[in-house]
Known about the structure:
Blueprint: H1 7-35, H2 38-42, H3 56-62, H4 65-97, H5 104-116, H6 121-130, H7 148-159, H8 163-171, H9 176-184, H10 189-205, H11 208-213, H12 222-234, E1 240-242, E2 248-250, H13 251-286
Antiparallel strand pairs: 1-2
Domain ABC transmembrane type-1: 71-277
Membrane topology: Multi-pass membrane protein
Keywords: Cell membrane, Membrane, Transmembrane, Transmembrane helix, Transport
Amino acid sequence: MSRRIGVFDIINVLLLALVAAAALFPFIHMASVVLSTPDHVVKNEVGLWPRGFQLDAIKAVLSDQRIWIGYKNTLIYVVLGTIISMFITVTGAYALSRKSLVFGKSIMLMIVFTIMFNGGVIPFYIVARGYGLMNTIWAMVLPNALNTFNLIIVRTFFQGFPKEIEESGRIDGLSDIGVLTHMVIPLSKPVLMTIGLFYSVEIWNSFTGALLFLRDASLHPLQLIIRNMVIVGQVGDIVETSTASGQHVVLESLRYGVILIAALPIILVYPFIQKYFEKGALIGSVKG
C-alpha cells in the first residue's frame, strides 16, 4: 500500500530544500570563484557557475607550505584533543550517572554553574601561562578539554541504561571500569560518535587558543593560518597577487580556495558517521 503525499509533506520538502540550498550556496559560490578566471572574478561576474576555467588559485594554495604545516598541526591537535576530551567526558559522565556517587549532585551543580559563569579571557590566559602551556601543543588540547554540555548529554544517556546491565556485569566479576569498557561503551556508539564529532569540529575550527598561547608559527593550526591569510588579503586595494610560478591570481580566489581546502576534511568525514550522528544527537537530550 503506497503512502499518500499530503500538503504537509510537500511544504516540509520545500522548506528543507530551501534550507539546504541556503547552506550549500556559500560553498558553491566559493568553488565557482576559485575555478573562474581572474577577469570575471574582478568584475564580480561569478555566481553559481564558474566563468571561464582555471586551477591557478588551487595550485597557489596547495603550493603554500603554511597550509601543510597548519594541516599537520591541526590533525595532531584534533586527534590528541579528541582522545583526551572523550576520555574525560566518558569517565566523568559515567561516574556522575551513578546514584551511589558521594556528593554527586553537588559536583554536578558546580559543573552546570560553569555554563552560566566563567572567569573570562584574562584569567584563562594567566592560568594557562602559570601551568607552562605557552607555546606547546598542550595549549590547544588541555584548556578546553571538557565541554560541559557534552558531559551532560553523555551523563543523561548513561542514566538511561537499565540497571540489569550493570548488575549482570558485576555478577561476571567486572569492576566499575570493566562495566564501563566492556558493556556501557560498546552500547553507546551513537552518542559517543556524535560527541566525538562535536569535539573534533570544535578543535578543528578553533583559533582563539592559538592566538592566545602560540607565538611559534610552526605550531599554528590551520584555522589561524587561514585567518592570517584572509585578513592580509583584505588589507589595502590590491586585487591580484603573484604565485610562485609567476601567475596572477585574484586574492578573493585565494581566500576562498584556502577556506574550501580547510573545510574539505570535515565535509568528507561527516557522511561516514552521519548514521551515528542522527541517532546520537537527540538520545542524550531526551532521556532522563
